[in-house]
Design brief:
mainly alpha, two-stranded antiparallel ribbon, Serine Threonine Protein Phosphatase 5, Tetratricopeptide repeat, 3 domains
Length: 287
Amino acid sequence: MVRALAIVALWSVVVARGVAEDRAAVLRLALDLSQSGDHAGAAVEYRRLALVDEMCNRAAWEWAAAWHHWRAGEWKPADRMLDRAEEHALEVLPLRLLRGEVARSSGDALAAAFFWRAIGEDASSSHEARIVSLRMAAAELAREGRWSEAAQALQESSKNEQDRLEVLDRARRMPVKRPWLGGLLGVIPGLGYVYSGEYANGARSFLLNATFITLIVLAARDENWAGVGVAGFFEITWYTGSIYGGVDAAHRWNRQQRERVAAEIRGNADWFWDEPALPLIRLQFRY
């Protein structure tokens, strides 16, 4: 009986050692993939660690997998891993911070603003409060140019952001493109694009419309009514495209200007983490 118990104990030690060595090998592989820029591969290895490691470490591995999915442009897998990390009681700051980044990168400025506002309410340091204020201001700009809300986020920063407020104020007074005017100008093929500075699209639209109008005229002169119908069908498509394109070009111009201002407001402010310290998540901030 004693010998059997000793054998079982020895076998348990061997198995535990083997699991620990396997876990260390997976972690080394994940770190190597991360350093080489293979974020999708690193995410897979961290997900493996979350499956085999102790319960107390799973949230950290899942968060790391979500971070790498985000860097790889894989928004949905990143969200799923963050859901799992939340279920395993990951601390609030890294969870919401990364959720905000994933939402922003996927184009959901409303969700990004929600997560960063939630961090701002519970920020425990001036560094956290400032990074969130800058992210909030940029997110509000992305939400159809909410200039007042962006200014309020900067005013609530833990540091005087007067320079950024001046950038915001100057940008707010800049002229914007009117989508209705872009559509109206698009009645003359290509002019709606030119209004918003898209000269190549304007030239393309003008040439296409001119080509099909010419084909219609030539077919009508030869009494080729089938040709008139075919060319007319395509001309209607290109002509309406010129009008709608003028509207879209104005929206694109305004959005690009807001994104440029948002990037200027964010500046070099960013956060990063000490990956080799995992399963501890150590966040740092820089400006």
